[in-house]
Amino acid sequence: MSPVIDCTSEEGLAQGMTAAAEAVRGGEVVVLPTDTVYGVGADAFAADAVAAVLTAKGRGRDMPLPVLVPNPQTVDGLAADVPAYARDLINAFWPGPLTLILHAQSSLMWDLGETNGTVALRMPRNDVTLRLLTEVGPMAVTSANISGQPPATTILEAATQLGSAVSVYLDAGPSAGGLASTILDCTQATPAILRAGAVSAGQIQAVLGDVELRN
Length: 215
Description:
Blueprint: E1 4-6, H1 10-25, E2 30-32, E3 39-43, H2 47-57, E4 67-68, H3 75-78, E5 79-80, H4 84-93, E6 98-104, E7 118-122, H5 127-136, E8 139-143, H6 155-162, E9 168-171, E10 182-185, E11 192-195, H7 201-208
Helix pairs in contact: 1-5
């Protein structure tokens, strides 16, 4: 049985960070809390580990994994040609449930799936996960469930679905649940919402000003 570590106390959080960081650096898969539902992920630069996440979910390479980052400054190391409007949205909504699809830096040695030269980035509003991301760097993370099943909002739901495919489970109590992150395509001169979510079109447009949303 993979360890489930209670991160609701400072002592447990410290233990969880040590175990999860060691697992991620070792190319293993972990379950972690986010500001929406529980996520399952691995080192974004460890191709075998990313493949293990896809396998655990029963998900194909045609649905590449998004990447969680510890801070906005990380974006420039991962993405190229970031438009000014995307930076405005980052300033307004990160950390939070807004995922931005950007052109990936061509020099990056990673394999997230069939991305067509893009990367989906988000900074989550969750202290446990931000602490882990600060420790290990960007992680490829998706919802902690088998594809086609409901996303896990508790560690028990995640463990029931993913079992021993995960090396460490970080338990921060029931997740907030609710809407998934809004996904915004920022690879062109004007952005487009690819998935409606917790950040509304109206909230986005209020930040964009003269920049119109594509349909």
